[in-house]
Amino acid sequence: MATKKSGSNTKRENFIRLAESRVTRAIESLRIIGNLSNRRNYEYNEEDVKKIINTLQEELNSLKNQFKIRSVNATKNFR
Fold first, then answer.
1. pLDDT > 90: what percent of the chain?
2. DSSP 3-state assignment of 42?
3. Tens digit of pLDDT for each residue in 26-36?
4. H helices present in 2-45, as ranges
5. CA–CA separation, 79 vs 30, rounded Å?
6. SS3 content of the chain, % helix, strand, coil (to 5)
7. Which DSSP letter does residue 35 get?
8. How far is it, in rounded angstroms, from Cα 70 to Cα 65?
9. Exposed (0-12), middle (13-18) or buried (19+): which is 37, by Cβ within 10 Å?
10. What CA–CA distance (Å, rounded) separates 8 from 25?
11. Are residues 68 and 49 in contact, defined by beta-carbon separation less than 8 angstroms?
């Protein structure tokens, strides 16, 4: 008889499966962007580099904020 997985285990397994795949793709994409630093093949200036890095940093910050645990009373003291 097959055992039924609990909903949280399935959700956890889906999270792990998707996170591994998506993070791997993101890292590969970042490495490909890094290939643009090869001055033999590309011409760019400091402003171009700043735009790329700032855009990526903004997206990373947004991602961090999405994963933050928000608590309404996190800064309030219990009395």
1. 72
2. coil
3. 999 999 999 99
4. 7-34
5. 48
6. 65, 0, 35
7. G
8. 9
9. exposed
10. 25
11. no
pTM of the model: 0.72
Q: How many residues does the chain have?
A: 79
- Residue 31 structure tokens: 């490495």
Matching residue, tokens 């590969």: 28
Q: What is the pLDDT of residues 22-70, one digit of tens each?
A: 999 999 999 999 999 999 999 999 999 999 999 999 999 999 999 997 6
Record the tokens describing residue 11, joined without a space.
Answer: 């959700």
Q: Is the pLDDT of residue 72 over 80?
A: no
What is residue 75's three-state secondary structure? Answer: coil
